[in-house]
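User: Reviewer 2 asked us to show a designed sequence for the structure in our supplementary figure. I'm pasting the structure tokens here. Could you produce the per-position amino acids so we can include them in the response letter?
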């Protein structure tokens, strides 16, 4: 699992590869990314330079209609990758608003690619964009946009302590490349 956190050298660690570093924290019960939530998605996240991605394969317990992922599950996946894209901004954001466009049914049992990125930041408010793809064909299954509000400094410090969050060098194993060729500038910014 990785390096120990805190005073107990045997304590388990959750790692998120993040370019030339790793994000380390205690395992937790988050529905989307928590290792301790046996009913959850247990997304294996990767983050780098304002983006985050995961490549889950959903099983039958996440269906809405037979063979199709429940829309709430699709929303949870997109919310998670967009929220973790905030890490480079040192933002522990809370979802203020989120919209999702369901482009095609999301089948269970296939490898998906969920991607989130920071589109714009204004003080404590961060705008993000996300998309869910069929990892094999690249077909866009859903797109999303969200607004996150950064937690106040005191709350952020408390959360970092609670989860023993820290950033460490990536080590000798290297890192995965960033998936998203989108420019950092949004269409809204380009128009002004």
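Assistant: Here is a per-position design you can include in the supplement:
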């Amino acid at each position: 699992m990785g390096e120990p956190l805190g005073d107990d050298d045997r304590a388990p660690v959750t790692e998120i590869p993040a370019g030339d570093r790793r994000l380390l924290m205690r395992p937790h019960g988050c529905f989307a990314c928590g290792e301790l939530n046996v009913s959850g998605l247990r997304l294996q996240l990767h983050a780098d330079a304002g983006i985050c991605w995961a490549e889950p394969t959903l099983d039958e317990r996440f269906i809405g209609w037979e063979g199709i992922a429940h829309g709430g599950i699709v929303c949870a996946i997109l919310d998670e990758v967009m929220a973790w894209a905030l890490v480079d901004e040192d933002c522990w954001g809370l979802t203020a608003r989120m919209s999702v466009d369901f482009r095609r049914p999301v089948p269970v049992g296939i490898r998906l690619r969920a991607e989130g990125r920071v589109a714009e930041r204004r003080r404590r408010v961060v705008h993000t964009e996300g998309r869910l793809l069929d990892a094999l064909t690249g077909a866009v299954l859903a797109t999303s946009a969200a607004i996150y509000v950064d937690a106040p400094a005191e709350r952020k410090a408390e959360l970092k302590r609670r989860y023993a969050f820290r950033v460490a060098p990536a080590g000798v194993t290297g890192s995965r490349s960033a998936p998203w060729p989108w420019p950092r500038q949004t269409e809204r910014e380009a128009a002004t």
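For the response letter, you might also mention the following. The chain has three helices and nine strands. Residues 86 and 147 are 11 Å apart (CA to CA).
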